[in-house]
Design a protein that fits this description.
With about 575 residues, the protein is mainly beta. The chain folds into 3 domains: about 170 residues, no CATH class; about 130 residues, no CATH class; about 270 residues, Neuraminidase (6 Propeller). It is built from 7 helices and 40 strands. The strands form 10 sheets. Strands 11, 12, 13, 14, 15 and 16 form a 6-stranded mixed sheet that branches. Strands 28, 29, 30, 31 and 32 form a 5-stranded antiparallel sheet that branches. Helix 6 packs antiparallel against helix 7. The longest helix has 16 residues. The radius of gyration is 26 Å and the shape is globular. The two termini are about 35 Å apart.
């Protein structure tokens, strides 16, 4: 699999050598989950000079670093600083090493360079880690070739500065399906800007899923791009030329493969449909025509497909639906009487509701209709300090009990007969810790938790999957995605900003609320052109968010009531508490 991902960056650099890539300095930002750039965009050019006669070893290495920041992206000049053998062996397509600053090179036969603020990205552009201590030492062996100094050893990476990386790449996603084919699942990657962007995205999809426990692909094995690139026509149709045994693929497989392609390429500005060709002929699709509109894949949107603009809250203990600033009681038992809840969650199709009682010890489950099946009943009685629950697309209800600083994570499933089973889910790095808040992505593949610690709070993420003969819910080891950089975080709440980004509410000086965004892959916010940070004078207690960027974000004031974050947010009726979207 690693070799396959290497094709992505290799294609970018190889195309650059032929002068085919145009990489812009900036691109329009349309929303938190769809950062797009026009394929034909190009930015300021930088054409580095090659090695100069009589350069010292330190000058040679310094100018080699400059050459790696060519724009449009190219390593043609950078290779001129290497010996013939080193140039032949160098594989910069195997990943990025991104640094915030570097110490001037030192040494003669071996030149050493110290980099600080180092982040690593793999060959597909997925963020891997921040170097331990934020520093990385590199050594370059110098040899004399044809009377001039040249670099004889170099890491198989493209080593570039943060400003270059920020302007030359975009945070996008590859889309695969969840194991039950209910929804698409995003996998964040940073992709070079320019004409090659659609091609890079499709080639990445063709290489398959990074973890088949979590997601699946419907691209038949052996499928490849038959042409050099994916082209975007003037009418917005992206043509994807493929080779492989697609003529015998089941109709459903082709349809789901098209959904993956379409939802991935919708991130490229101007793409409104795709056309898949095999050996030059359009691949038949179930819609009857050769083109697949990107909107056809909207039913698999990982942000959810519910009605926009619907919020839910409590008013005098009764659950109400809030639409365009107006409230009305919901149908069923929760809209008829005070249910004694402190918080609650509505499932994604707004048919079921789970409430946490005021004591934080019980879970009450029921429907949002007037049928007999909507009766409210207690399904958990042994809680200690239950936080707000979460629903995912599989109708799993996720619970976290703070349990005196020794958190217990569990999931409830209700079958067609109404029988409820509960499974405790061991989440390494979260279970048994002091959990401030926990939330599940709507696609059901990511668990995010805010943890309290002696040196300040941190946010961690774990991937969710089902395994074993009894289909037990399991998780990967939680890894840190947000930690205070030179500050002590005091997190109050978490929420999804998009399927690939979060909002978290941090306390500043004990008197102000700081609402910030973060990317779920753990990469620095400096690499996110849609990053957000806002300070509010009234200490907020909760943030009400939706992964659909069309839906407004609200901050709950310490003194009561809600205020919209940004302009145009409908007012929330006075007296409404525990405000929430579905999920």
């Amino acid at each position: 699999m690693r070799r396959g991902w290497t094709v992505v960056l290799a294609l970018s650099l190889a195309a650059a050598l032929g002068g085919c890539i145009r990489i812009p300095d900036s691109g329009p930002v349309h929303s938190a989950d769809t950062v797009t750039a026009a394929p034909g965009d190009q930015g300021q050019r930088f054409e580095p000079r090659g090695p100069q006669p009589g350069e010292s070893s330190q000058e040679l290495v310094r100018h080699f670093f400059e050459a790696m920041t060519a724009s449009p992206m190219s390593v043609t000049v950078a290779r001129q600083f290497l010996t013939k053998s080193a140039s032949s062996d160098w594989r910069p397509e195997r990943g990025f090493l991104v640094y915030s600053s570097k110490v001037s090179p030192s040494g003669s036969d071996t030149v050493r360079v110290n980099l600080t603020g180092v982040n690593r990205f793999d060959s597909r552009g997925a963020w891997q880690e921040r170097a331990s201590g934020g520093e990385h030492d590199l050594s370059f062996r110098i040899e004399t070739e044809n009377g001039e100094r040249r670099i004889a050893s170099v890491p198989d990476l493209l080593m570039v500065s943060e400003p270059w990386f920020e302007t030359q790449t975009l945070p996008l996603s590859l889309y695969f399906f969840d194991p039950d084919t209910r929804t698409l699942v995003p996998e964040p990657v940073f992709v070079p800007r320019g004409d090659q962007m659609p091609t890079l995205l499709i080639r990445s999809l063709l290489e398959g899923t990074p973890d088949p426990r979590i997601e699946q692909t419907f691209v038949p094995a052996g499928t490849t791009l038959s042409g050099l690139s994916v082209t975007v026509r003037a009418d917005g149709v992206a043509e994807i030329p493929l080779s492989g045994d697609l003529a015998n693929a089941p109709e459903q497989t082709v349809e789901l493969m098209a959904a993956q392609f379409a939802w991935t390429l919708r991130q490229v500005q101007g793409v409104n449909a795709i056309r898949i060709t095999v050996d030059g002929e359009p691949l038949p699709l179930s819609g009857g025509g050769p083109d697949y509109p990107v909107s056809r894949a909207a039913s698999f949107d990982p942000a959810g497909t519910h009605t926009l603009g619907e919020l839910y809250g409590l008013h005098d203990g009764v659950v109400v639906r809030v639409v365009d600033g107006e409230e009305e009681p919901v149908l069923g038992p929760f809209g008829q009487r005070d249910i004694g809840a402190r918080t609650f969650a509505v499932n994604l199709d707004a048919s079921r509701l789970a409430a946490i009682t005021a004591s934080g010890t019980r879970v009450v489950l029921g429907g949002l209709s007037e049928s007999d099946e909507s009766r409210a009943r207690t399904v958990v009685r042994d809680g200690v300090d239950l936080l707000k629950p979460s629903w995912d697309v599989a109708s799993r209800l996720w619970l976290v009990d703070r349990n005196g600083g020794r958190a217990v994570v569990s999931v409830l499933l209700e079958d067609d007969e109404g029988s409820v089973t509960r499974q405790v889910v061991e989440v390494p790095g979260v279970s048994g810790r002091d959990v401030v808040d926990l939330t599940i992505s709507r696609d059901g593949t990511r668990l995010v938790a805010a943890l309290r610690g002696p040196d300040g709070d941190r946010i961690v993420l774990s991937r969710i999957f089902v395994a074993g003969a009894e289909a037990q819910v399991r998780s990967t080891n939680a890894r840190r995605i947000v930690v205070g950089a030179g500050e002590r975080l005091q997190i109050r709440d978490l929420g999804w900003r998009s399927p690939t980004s979060l909002f978290y509410l941090n306390v500043l000086g004990g008197r102000q609320a700081n609402l910030r965004s973060a990317l779920i892959d753990g990469s620095p916010t400096a690499f996110d052109p849609a990053a957000y940070s806002g300070v509010f004078p009234d200490l907020g207690t909760r943030v009400v968010t939706s992964p659909r960027p069309e839906e407004p974000t609200y901050l709950q004031r310490a003194g009561g009531g809600y205020q919209g974050v940004g302009e145009g947010s409908p007012a929330i009726p006075e007296g409404v508490t525990a405000l929430t979207y579905v999920g």
